[in-house]
Amino acid sequence: MDTPDCENSLTTLNSFKETTIQSGHTVLLRLPNGETKGFKVEKDATVSIGRVGSFRANELIGQPYGLTYEIQGKELTVQSPRTLQEVEETDATNELINDDEFVQPLTLDEIEALKNSGVHASEIIKAQIEQHANYSLKTEYSKEKYRQRKEAKYSKTFSTVEPTIYNVCDHWFKKDQNRIRDIRPDTLSQILNLANIRPGGRYIVVDEASGLLVSAILERLGGEGRLISICDVDSPPAYPVMTLMNFRKDVVTKIHSSLNWATAQEDYTPASALPQELSSEVGKSDRHRIRLDKRKIAADTLTNAREELFAGEYDALVIASDYDLPDILENLVPYVAGSGSVVVQSPFSQPLTELQSKLRFNPNYLAPSITESWLRRYQVLPGRTHPTMNASGSGGFLLHALKVYDDPNASRVPSHRQSKRRKKEANEGDSSTPQTLESYDARELEEEDVIVADEEGQTSEMEQPS
């Protein structure tokens, strides 16, 4: 059984990400209307969610993700999960319904008065349903939709969303898909699959999608492996997507390093070279020694990251950038190991089409192909399962290729397999006629010469005119 391995992987993942809400986390809250918003949870602070209400952040600290709360004053009350119920078919239709201003006699002033008096949202919805003139004429499906719209308007409930890469990617795609280069959750899953991202792997990423690729790879690594990101700023970039993931900083610092395009060049000497003076030099102030220690740590981190990058043998290169793609590949692909994946994402097909045409004539790349992800969302409810009316047009395009070594001196695979088979047959043969290793090698050379001669003879016969 693989139970111990599963337990070890779960322990590693739990040590990389907190399973409960802690002070300093940025938590995604799902509001009654279905939207998700991020809020910073600080100890002894007050979190305000607009018209839904406000509450003390201390009530969320230490709680697991996924619970639903209702705001009552400044206090939070945990709500029990709601179950789906079957909707019975009736003979009612909506053809006789006339939704004019006289259908709902309950005025806005009266509704505001009910809200100010502290009446529960369910009582307000019940009052609106009772005074609705055409509510009884609606079908059961229309009644359910009406109640849901009113709950989204008057309810003071919210749910905490677990910070998985799927939830965070879906949140950012709905919020501002241009910030993440139109990468939908299904496109992101294809990127991770094509690049073969796994715990313990070593990867290079060029991320201009607000840190979405970096966050996804870090979550998949689970605290084990190595990731080097290439950016265009001197200091480590502030990825807005990563703030919602709530990774442990000590673990991220251990497995993730950032280099800019200048420091990623082997012939470049970093300008922030460590001064010759020592931090423990006598006569220096404490502030000056602390500053020198920080500069030494930063210089050592940069040096180690460059040495790791230049050592190469990385498992994959993942790119989502607006810079010139052939130049990026020329600079970074040499550090990818043989059979390593190269994955390039773009919101448009033209850059990838031009890149593909160049890679086809490059012997260092195998099978460059372009794919476009397509997604259709469904509403899944009892008796009401159907595609949603609105859908996103595209999740971007992906180019995938494998790096291979262009070695003309490599042995032919068929002859290599034949020689191994012949050795095995000779070892299993008659032991009364022992043969030395030199005799085996001589026989293999003779057979390879025969194979080459046969191929040359076939070629000359094909070239002779008929």
In short:
With about 475 residues, the protein is of the alpha/beta class. It has helices at about 5-15, 110-115, 120-130, 140-155, 165-175, 185-195, 210-220, 240-245, 250-255, 285-310, 325-330, 350-360, 415-430, 435-465; strands at about 25-30, 35-40, 45-50, 55, 70, 75-80, 155-160, 200-205, 225-230, 255-260, 315-320, 335-345, 365-370, 380, 385, 395-405.
Question: What's the structural blueprint in terms of helices and strands?
Answer:
Elements: H1 3-16, E1 26-30, E2 36-40, E3 46-48, E4 54-56, E5 68-72, E6 75-79, H2 108-116, H3 121-131, H4 140-154, E7 157-161, H5 165-176, H6 185-194, E8 202-207, H7 212-221, E9 226-231, H8 240-243, H9 249-255, E10 256-260, H10 286-311, E11 314-320, H11 325-332, E12 336-346, H12 349-359, E13 365-372, E14 378-379, E15 386-387, E16 397-403, H13 413-428, H14 437-463
Parallel strand pairs: 8-9, 8-11, 9-10, 11-12
Antiparallel strand pairs: 1-2, 1-7, 3-4, 5-6, 5-7, 12-16, 13-16, 14-15
Helix pairs in contact: 3-4
Describe this structure as you would to a colleague.
Pfam families: Gcd10p. Keywords: Nucleus, tRNA processing. This is tRNA (adenine(58)-N(1))-methyltransferase non-catalytic subunit TRM6. The protein has 466 residues and is of the alpha/beta class. It has three domains: 21-161, no CATH class; 165-403, 3-Layer(aba) Sandwich (Rossmann fold); 413-460, no CATH class. It contains 14 helices and 16 strands. It has helices at residues 3-16, 108-116, 121-131, 140-154, 165-176, 185-194, 212-221, 240-243, 249-255, 286-311, 325-332, 349-359, 413-428, 437-463, and strands spanning 26-30, 36-40, 46-48, 54-56, 68-72, 75-79, 157-161, 202-207, 226-231, 256-260, 314-320, 336-346, 365-372, 378-379, 386-387, 397-403. It has a seven-stranded mixed sheet, with helices on both faces. Strands 2-1-7-5-6 form a five-stranded antiparallel sheet, covered by helices on one side. It starts with a helix and ends with a helix. The relative contact order is 0.09. Mean pLDDT is 81; it is low at 1-7, 411-417 and 431-437.
